[in-house]
């Protein structure tokens, strides 16, 4: 048995719908600008090839959590996303085999400190401080692909205090799920426990302390989180 100088951290995990079991999270990959309308609203070309950024595994939190408004920002944005849960390892996965590596799907929110991201873009610096902060990856319960199939279309939406903010369809993905998995595996060997946030539709915007975010993907599930007051 291995001894550690400090206690190992808890294993990050996501709930599984209808089960007491949980899905242990290894890494979180996120796809940028994967809906054409969202790419345009940020002033980018929707024809660009997909690119990825990461969040730490322990950024993931369950639906129903209250998240303190994060530090260092005055412009916290919501981004609703379909989440892909990887269940089978693979490196340089052919597109035709990619869906066989998917364990299931969920609904996630990529919380973003937009002002820090804008500053990083202007300075040509990494996005880590804008994307990879504490509790920045809320994720609803996962559903096995054996139950849902592999979605190619379906409404994806988000509301703040009941007011609709984002409303799109998975059919609008520039790079569908199989492409995303295959392309990501060109750079890293995907492993069981990896999550891929697949991009957000248009309508991203700011959320304030005291507000409630709800969202969902048809046929997959729903998510809700509250934004609390900043930590003292």
TrEMBL record:
GO molecular function, one term: metal ion binding
Fumarylacetoacetase-like C-terminal domain ranges (all copies): 28-225
SUPFAM superfamilies: FAH
Domain of life according to the entry: Bacteria
Pfam families: FAA_hydrolase
Keywords: Hydrolase, Metal-binding
Name of the protein in its database record: FAA hydrolase family protein
